[in-house]
Structure formats: structure tokens, C-alpha cells
Amino acid sequence: MRSALGVFACLLGTVAFARPVGAQVAQPPTAASVPAPPAPELLPPHLVTDAPVPYPQGGTGDATVVLTITVDEDGLVREATPTEPNPPFSTHAAETARAWRFEPATRGGKAVTARIRVEVVFHAPTVAASVDAAPPPPSGAAKATTPIDVHVLGERPEPSRTVSFTRTEVRQIPGVFGDPFRALEVMPGVTPIVSGLPFFFVRGAPPGDVGYFLDGVRVPYLFHVGAGPSVIHPALIDSVDLYPGGYPARFGRFSGGIVDGETVAPSAQAHGEGNVRLFDAGLFVETPFDDGRGDLALGGRYSYTAALLTLLQSDVSLNYWDYQARLGFDLTSHDRISVFAFGAHDFLGQKNDGGGTTTVFGATFHRVDLRYDHRIDGDGTLRIALTGGLDDTALDDAHYVQDRLVGARAELAYRLSPGALLRAGIDGEIDRYDVLLSDASDDSEAAVAALFPSRTDLTLGTRADVVLAAGPRLEITPGLRLDAYASQGATALGVDPRLATRTVLTDHLRLLGAMGVAHQVPAFVIPVPGFQPGGLQGGLQTALQESAGIEADLAAATTMTATLYHNAFFNLSDALSVNQAPISGCGSGTVPGGSLVGSGNSVNCSSGQTVPTGGDAQTAQTLTTRSSGSAYGLELFVKKKLTHKLGGFVSYTLSRSVRTADNQHFIAPFDRTHVANAALAYDLGRGWRAGVRVLFYTGLPKTPDPSDPGSTRLAPFFRIDLRLEKRWQLGPRAWISFVAEWMNATLSKESVGTNCTLQGCQEERIGPVTVPSLGVEGGF
Question: Where are the beta strands (DSSP E) in 92-160?
Fold first, then answer.
């Protein structure tokens, strides 16, 4: 069992107005449905490339096809759907239109996603067709003219939502490997535990208190083992939003931030995307069927890192895989059924002399979500869903934790009046936890069993909020959610009021405000499938979250947000901080996790005194210790769209996090005063594009060093990420790219603790955590 708890110790120590959406027959009413101030000037998309539409084989006579085209903020065609089937003309026009490139629609100078309708006119036996042109141009190229109509898509971002990137922009951020979820690390308010590892403190909340959702389904963890990619193929992701605090009432049961991913809408055309890199390969394909009434999407990734590690370190085995599958069918124009399944597996093992492999850490999860969606004419939408899941984590070959869950939810969005949108829901979940121990009579195993017992937990919740247009320039969203918890005979109720405001000062300047209360059951240090403390030991965690900021359009395709925030935490499960709190007899400074946890049984104080830590049982006890604290700071984000010839962003957080535990008040051991990201992406021409990103943050609080009494922090960290891409267009829709990317090209090491003895203190450094990558990507 000591090896199992060693993993615990290891984890403790190391660990705008338009939001793009896919074109769909029915869009749920959102905050954009509520009357807003007079809209600034809207300019439609403008076709900037030649648009030849060859006459299709098998066609006869003249034909006119009306296409509904979704043009995103980058000027790319997201969807092209004929209003009426007329093969082969309609299918051919739609396929060709997907290769068109536009200057995106703008509202008040800011790029927005828009849906437009255009005509494609075929004349027999003319070789080419034209868009809104008769007769066709002599060259045979389609003529770009004003669309038949223009409709801006999407919703106003929630006031509590932080900035986000489009999928095309994410591809240009060096060091995130085109992964929308990994782009979270560049967001303001996000503080990494260690550079390169995907576990973050969000506005002072520990990693275990940050909730992950995909299409409304809770995901146990987002990233593969080590510095791996996310567990969802990027081609399936439409958007990823970070709510660092004061989030809408539809999110709950987490006292930290919320990461909300939404999948792309079903496509009316078959398409696919794949990649092969040094460490893994991935593929995503989607196709409609039954004349577009149904759709099927399949995706996944497989890592062959085990083979590479065999060459570099023969005694280590590491691999991962994930999968996604979605099947949907339109019963009527108002009703749709679908099923979405996804899952992932991670394994880290130690090879032994006998030729076998001993499990060091293994995690697997599966989710199946069955949905029924109904459109209530033009007034709203209703979703009813049933979810099943399995989470399984092994700490070694003899110890594991398993969670089998069943949940149901109903979600309603309904327009009460032109100025009021109701969003309400109810859900429940039953979790059956099973824990296997090799020797329950062992004291250390008994300590872990008491924290993670076999049991059945029940959670029920309901919520509602109303988006109100309180005036021509003011929008208010009051909300409330209630969550009831039951575990091992203990019960608790969380009452979470929420309030968000948006005030439009000018067409280019907005004031945003958000506040709310959030409750959560006791949590493990970091997100690990199945590791949920039982019995509501210590009661619910509570967080008071509040923020105020401005959002400004500085110029075309350039935006800026600045936010002041304050979070207060009560009864907090934060073993990463408590385990590194000042120890009696060790002075007033903090003891880094590397010194306390890594020693196993004791820690050396700066005075030379050795303090016992209690071994495995003490480690388990530390996980249940509660604290209080607060976090406050300033977040700044300036972005020029990365898809322009020259684009980039600057993300900066100035913050302070403090904790109180065992009647001691101290700066949180993970606190970093300054966290800054800056990136540039440049189009070199001829399909070449290059990017560079710089990451800097201040060091962690330092154990007092008698030899250097003026030093209070460890050394700061600095790294550079690089990206170079060469792209070839193989036809109207097909493309292929060669991508070279290197996270931490500077091979920077990071200081994570201080080891103090009678001979003095020395900083402990890890790394370099670096990931070079060469790969080929393509799609159609």
C-alpha cells in the first residue's frame, strides 16, 4: 500500500458579441435573443477568393441552387447547405463552397460569425457557374456580390466567461499542439502547478475544485498522463469556455472554475481530419446519411509513446488512447434523438526484471449520453438526457477505485417575453464507488479506506436564471441553483445565488460584472477518476466569487478585456496548500511540497530540526485537512486575431492567494504574483506560417534561508514555445500540413522547492519538461 500512497505523494508534490456555433436547423434561444441596444453597423462577409463552380458531371440544363453558408470569424466556411435538394447541382455547389474564403462579417468593426444565403447559377453547357451572376463572367470564375441576406449567429458571452479562441486560432498558438483544451493555460487567471503539466489553480481554487464539462456531461479529467493532449479529439470541439468565477446557474457542484466544452454541430457534408505525430496519431470522420436526416461521427487518438520510451528509458511504459462516437437522427423538424459516447485510458508502468510490467498509475473512463432534443416553435428548446459512465483508477496491481454512475437531466431555454429568457434545469446522479485493498488490516490502507470507502452517493440539483433586458443598454441575469448531497448517511444542501450584469457604454465598450456563491463536496487534490472522498467528511466547501471588468474593441479584429476579481474560500479542501503550510518549529516560512512529501517520513527545517510527517497515514490525513483563504487580482488580455497576416495576444495576471490553516495565516505555496503569456503568429506566404510564444511567471514562496534572508521566492520561470507550419491546398476541400512544434524550446528547468539542512538551503529544480513534435495533418 505504501506504493499506492507514494502516488498520492507524487501527485501532491508535482501536481464581443459573437460566439461561433455550427449551422443547425434549430438554434436554442440564448442571451442574444433578448433585445439589446441598437446594433452597431453590420457589414456582410465579402468573398475574397475566386470561386469557380464547375458544371457537375451528370447534370443537364440550367439550375439555380440557393446555399445557406456559415462564415466564421476567420472568414472560413463552416457549413454550406442547399435550401432544397437538387442533385447533382446542390451537392456539387455545397462541396465547392466549402473552399471559398471570405473577409468575415463585422459588427462595429469586430469580426463576427454570420450565416448568409447566396445563389449559385448553373448554365448548360457552360463550364462554370456564378454566384449571383447572370451571365457568368467570361473567365468562368464566380462573381462575389452582396449576399441575399445576412444573419449574425451566436450569443453574447456570459459576463463571467473569460476570453476564448476559435478553433482556427488555437492551431496557431505555439506549445498547445492545436488542442482547444490546452489553450486554457494561456488564459488570464490560470496559474500552472508546474510548467507543461495540465493541472491549474484558477483564481486561487485548487485543481480538484475545477469542473470539466463536455456538452453538459461531467468529464473526470481532461488531459492524458504527463504532458499529453486532451482526451477529446480537437476536430470534435467547437468551443472551449473558461468560467473562472461567478458562472451561470447551469454550472454547479464545483467551488473553483468551470471549463465548458461544446462539440461541433452535425455537418451536412462528409468530412474528416487526421494527424500523425512523434508521440500519437489521431483521426476524426463524420458523414450524414438518409438525405441529411442522420449523421455519424467517429474520432479518437492512440499513443505509441511506450515504444519511444523503450528507446529512451527502457524501464518505463507509458501509453494512452481515447475515442468519441456520435450518432444523431432528426425525427421531425422539431425533434431529434442522438447518442454521444466518449472515453479515455492512460497507463504508466514500471518494467521489472521478470519481463512483466507493474502498474504505477492507470486511469480509464467511459461516458454514454443519450439525448432527446425538442424545439418549442420559435420560443425555446428542451433537452432530456440520460447518462451512464464508468471511472476506474489503479494505483498499482493490487489497489484500485471504481465509480459506476447513472445520471439524468432536463434542460429548458424558453423566451418568456421579448425581453426575458428563462433557462432552467433539473438533474440527478447516483454514483457507486468500489475500493479494492490488498490488506484492509494494515493501518495505512485503513486510513485510505476511511477516506475513499466503498459506498453509494446521491446528488440532486435544480437551477434557473433569467436573462433580462432591463433597459436599452443594461442586461441583468439573476439566478439560483440548489444541490442536495447524500453519502454514507450524511446529507448536505448547497444554496447558490448568482448575479451577472452587462452594461453597454458605447458600441465598442462594455462593463461586465458577476458574483455568486458556489458549493462543492470534499475533493481530491487533482482530477483523478473515481477518487472522491466519501461521507461528506468536513462538510461542503464554499466559495464566494465576484468580479468586475471592461471589454473593449480597440480596432478591427483587436479586443481587450481587463478584470478585477476577488474569491473567498471557506472550509476548503486544498491539500496542496495545507501540506505545505508552515510547520511548528520550522519558522514563519512555508515548507515546499517537494521537501515535505518527497521525504516520506520527515522534513528538514531551516534551523536543522527534523520534524516527522507521519508517513502514509499522515499523507492520507492531510488530504482531509480543511483551510480557508482568498484570492484577488487583475487580469488583462489583449488579442489581435491570430488568423490575420500578423496576429497575437498578451495575457497577464497580477494576483495574490493566501490561506489560513491550523490558526496560521500564510501566502499560498502555489502563489505566483505575475503570470504572463505573449504570442505572435505570422503568415510568411506560400503556405508557410510561423509562431512564437513566451511564458513567464514569478517563483513560488520560499522557505526562509538564513544564508539569504532577503530572498522570499524561488527563481522565476521563463520558457519559449515555437511553431512552424507549411500548408498545401489539394483541392476545393482537401488540405495537408507539415507542422513542427516545440514546447519549452529553451529547455528551461523550474524551481519547485527548497531543501534546507545544517549546511544551508538549495533550490530543488525539475525538468526540463519539454515536448518537441513533428507531424503531418490533413483533412477534407
Answer: 102-103, 105-107, 110-112, 114-122, 128-131, 149-152
